[in-house]
Amino acid sequence: MKKVxxxxxxxxxxxxxxxxxxxxxxxxxxxxHINFGIDFQPGLIEEVRxxxxxxxxxxxxxxxxxxxxxxQGISFVISGAGSESRTESFRYIxxxxxxxxxxxxxxxxxxxxxxxxxxxxTAEGFFGSSSxxxxxxxxxxxxxxxxxxxxxVSVEDIRELFANDSxxxxxxxxxxxxxxxxxxxxxxxxxxxxxxxxxxxxxxxxVKKYGEENVAIIKTDFVASNFSSSLASKAIILVIGxxxxxxxxxTIRFKWDFALAAIIALLHDSLIIIxxxxxxxxxxxxxxxxxxxxxxxxxxxxxxxxxxxxxxxxRTVKTQNFLDILNISLSDTLSRSLxxxxxxxxxxxxxxxxxxxTMRDFALALFVGLLxxxxxxxxxxGAFTSLTRKNWKPSDEEKKTQTxxxxxxxxxxx
Length: 414
Prior knowledge:
This protein has 414 residues and is α+β, with helices and mostly antiparallel strands. The protein has helices at 11-31, 98-105, 155-161, 194-210, 225-253, 256-280, 286-316, 322-354, 357-388, 396-413; strands spanning 43-50, 53-59, 64-69, 73-79, 86-91, 111-115, 141-144, 168-172, 180-186, 215-223. The strands form three sheets. Strands 8-9-1-10 form a four-stranded antiparallel beta sheet. Strands 6-2-7 form a three-stranded antiparallel beta sheet, covered by helices on one side. It has a three-stranded antiparallel beta sheet with strand order 3-4-5, covered by helices on one side. A hairpin with a 7-residue loop joins strand 8 (168-172) and strand 9 (180-186). The model is unreliable at 404-414 (pLDDT under 50).
């Protein structure tokens, strides 16, 4: 006979631990708040990198020349009236130094390429600034590069640039050796031109300190206040609607207390994830909402499997104590719950190790949620159903099916 684990012994300690964790999360929400991303907090987020200029480009011809950068090299997309549409590619493997790259690019009619870095500097990983138009004109277009041994600029130094203005928030982005920083500024909706003004203000402060030749804008995201509030309200409605549909499904398939236990477990998982996000100050974005909904799906699936086994054992296990049925059901489904969670975690860990940015945060939130979902399906939903059915006694119909099940088992054993 399969060993039955007395899970019911741990219901009370598990509930206490969960209450402590959630309470700590509430304290963190009140003191540290949630680090809302640009999706939910109106304003602008700009990623700025301090890096030297490798070379400058300008064009005075009649054609239209657009610069495109990639991991393999630089491409000139040439089009327009009076010219043959074509693409000129300059691969790093073919032109391994800045000097060679400049000489090759200067061969395009109307193009002026000037080396700013030493000509012997390795030509690799050039990138532009989003503050520049990708279409070449008579003005200098700068291509920046990553130094092999850069002077690291601390995030505290960058915060000093905005020390006199509390509307700006600064944090490090990526590896410290990249000298990349994320600047965030809010938008109260009063100025329709606030995006352009903030971008120019950020650029001016960096240029004043480090020089135009050493400042590249990597990317800029802006969300207006009306869009942000609309997205936040829709996200809340989405989560609540999902909970209600799950409650309705569980009520129809099982009993009201099973359905309520499932919802309590889902609320537990959601609160644990939100608490974790608040503790770690992980950016809360639409990807985070996707992680929460994914965890709700995994958690309810595990809970439904357990309750389905409970419903079956009520008809087959001869006992007067509901805790016996609950412990047997949890023991029967434990291996299934563990295998499902562990195999999913392998994919989540891979995402966490081999991705960056929002996908990495998504993977981390999923990992925490999977652990919480496994835990809540066993202990939180189990604790609630044991409480609502502490005075449970099998009905006459259930006693009859239990007796028939025992008789069938004995006959099979003979």
